[in-house]
Amino acid sequence: AEHLLEVEGLKKYFPIKEGVFSKTVGHVKAVDHVSFKIKQGEIFGLVGESGCGKTTVGRTLLSLLEPTEGLVKFDQQILYNTETGERINKNDLRKLRKEMQIIFQDPYASLDPRMNVGMIVSEGLRKHKLVKNKKEAIEKSKELLELCGLEGSNVRKYPHEFSGGQRQRIGVARALALEPKFLVADEPIAALDVSIQAQMLKFMTDLKDRLGLTYLFISHDLSVVRYFCDRVAVMYLGSFAEQAPTKKLFKKPLHPYTQSLLSAVPKSDPAVKKKREILKGDVPSPADPPSGCKFHTRCKYAEDKCKIKIPVYREIEPDHFVSCHLAEKINQINNHL
Ligand code: SF4
Question: Which residues form the ABC transporter domain (predicted)?
């Protein structure tokens, strides 16, 4: 399959301002040199602890935020290339925005309580003048609700009349109104009852197959990512620690950070007892990240060079990327193979 999205050397730094003159005294390196590609029809998972930069990646791809540096290409079109100074013009961006939509984490906060469901779902259609009148907007909203497994007659109701799961489906219906190709789902099930999380994931998978969508799925939960995503990238302090097809990553995690995260995931088979590794210390601040390998303050394998040299993010095995100086040594990978 072709790549729908290509990201190369993406950086997003936020200035830290201080004092009455708002002098810039430093930067929060929210996204720090991230590269990846998402194939058409793929579910690409982005995992990491809160504050690791995954949401910022999603928002930058949707061009809700401007990248500080890097190349972003969507559907063969360059959105940004800071190296050449190229950027998409406003008209093309408006068109492209329709093709990239977001599903928010919180189905309670993301739906305007004063608008009825028909208005919410058809908001984008009305904004882009894709419906002629109110009647058409209501008809289209009904269709979209039905596509998302809700009754069309719900158009006249208000968000408070629905459960969390239903609200999230309304959010999805709204995202689908403009017939996007690409959806950023930012923790779409984290705020839902555990009992309906699996159902929501199944619904999203069916939808993807039916409509030929591509997802960037942002989550802090490895066990969710495991069953939902085709490919997973693990983020730590703004950078990718590791990226691989899901099966590969779970079978043979190569980065010490991924290994410790995985050791904390409960095993489905109680006979398999694996020692849970507790990471030492807290996540350092992205405003003042550790030198060299950002993970060195918490890594049990850290050597002197880890404190000085930034590890290169490299393809260590076919389709398996990792940024660790000692990956071969830690995992006893035979380089000749
Ligand atoms: Fe640990 Fe060093 Fe690898 Fe970083 S580069 S993950 S500190 S071993």
Answer: 5-262
